Task: structure prediction
Amino acid sequence: MRVSNVTVRKRLVLVLVVGLLIFTVIDVRLGYVQFFLGNWLTDRAKDSWSRNIPFEPERGKIVDRNGIPLATNKSAPSILVVPRQIENPSETAEKLAAVLDASKEEIYRQITKQGSSQWIKPEGRKISHEKAKEIRALGLKGVYVAEDSIRYYPFGNYLSHVLGFAGIDNQGLMGLELEYDKELSGEEGYVRFYADAKGKRMPSIADDYKEPTPGLDLKLTIDTKVQTIIERELDITQATYNPDGIVAIAMNPKNGEILAMTSRPNFDPANFQNVPAEVFNRNLPVWSTYEPGSTFKIITLAAALNEQLVDLDKDTFDDDGAAEVDGARLRCWKRGGHGHQTFLEVVENSCNPGFVELGQRLGTERLFNYIHDFGFGQKTGIDLQGEGRGILFNVKNVGPVELATTAFGQGVSVTPIQQVAAVAAAINGGILYQPYIAKEFIDPETKQVVSRTEPVAKRRVISEETSKQVRYALENVVAKGSGGKAYIDGYRVAGKTGTAQKVKDGKYLENNFIVSFMGFAPADDPQIVVYVAVDNPKGVIQFGGTVAAPIVGNILREVLPAMGVEKRKDQVEKELKWPDTPLIEVPSLVGMKKKDLQGQLVDLKIKTYGKGEKIIEQSPMPGIKVKQGSTIRIYLGD
Result:
């Protein structure tokens, strides 16, 4: 059957239209791929061809408030291999193993792994520049020396629990290194080269380079002048008493800034693997919990004063050595008691029965409300990991005995940082601040502050007038009471001793105490509060006033001048107790003749230097108070 010309023409038109449609679709698709997907597809192709040699970013430095470096970086190259580019794996493994002091079999296993690239570890990570130079000289194909760095702690064990440490990949693992890892880490850079399916470099495509972005620098509230003095005193304490542990914290009571924090045992962050995990995992100032003992009496005192339940100078108390409470006999530390005393003397003498009386005046609900408001039983919020909460009685279960023991710091469990924050509130005018240690983040290139931590005032706990009375009482503790060994001539030091029997398996241990002292200065305008606790000191009578108070006194004696706090003469006169010797004010000797000294310094010794008849210099300077029998050095000249 013949097909008509019309039908043929229709079919030809149809084929032509379909052809045009197909061509249009192909053309549009090609245009879309070329103009819209071209760059994306090229990038995907280049990704499949690319191999990266990473460049680690420089981790942000950690510095103290004055810019002193506490954690920095040292260059330490690492070895990276591209397995497909290695021509002779056995020979390559043998040569690498010889330089890296590693197992040839283990190196061979790593360089023959499937994958685009592979670090040689652990022996090939963070190696010396000498070894890196040796490996470059071998000219091994597929073996690259990548720029890398290792964390460096210039002061060793110094501030170790606070700083923490970083791992082999420069990731923060503990302390501030972990807490602020994201800010400190920065962004990785790389050199990217291109290779075919067999791993051979493609010379026709240029290498790409992305510069690493360094991490932010972290400035702390820590003051190395304060930290160094405290570290030294703790080393002396460790050598003198061989205690089970020591804790020390210094804080600015006016804003919550931590000025120093340390503990013993400590460790070198660069070699944390060499100490037991319980040593580096436990930052004792924020982690440890124990009965505070008499330092907790500051809270009871503040609460009673704020409720106007006691007048320190007018109200009196008779102490016969124990308080009878609901059939329990709660003893004073002094056998036979302190007798008739004002409540100021109750505080000075750290008299347990006197504080039982204050606790009873307050009652359970009011006392525990104040304890909660001062921050006990809850985390302070300090920016360090592992903070404890402490343990308090459930108010519903508090009977007369529990109320009484809580009032003088027994039967409750607190952390050191809780105590420091609470006492800071008691003496700074009544405001509880959140302690913190990270002050600022700084761009390392522009040196501009990226972010800053502002003090956080949680709440008012007591009135300013109450806080003033607390300071007055605690200054008298140092001048006339149990804290006498923290007394410093020329500085108004205040504080409170603490002696707490340790508990194990629900029982108090015999002759095993945590002795402590909470001190601050100047008493009328506190600039610093220092807390030291010594766990089970050996070879000494275990009292806070005997062991811990002198340590805090030694710390403040050097810290206060370093902070620019000047000496004054308006301090409470020290009440001498055996075996104290009276202090003598050094007279002015400059200008006097040597022969005129006779009779001038009856209670002091003289040591002369130089030649001549006239005194041209002396040490100590006039006005300084020294112990009876001290030596005065004079320098003679014409």
Q: What stands out?
A: The chain has a mean pLDDT of 88.
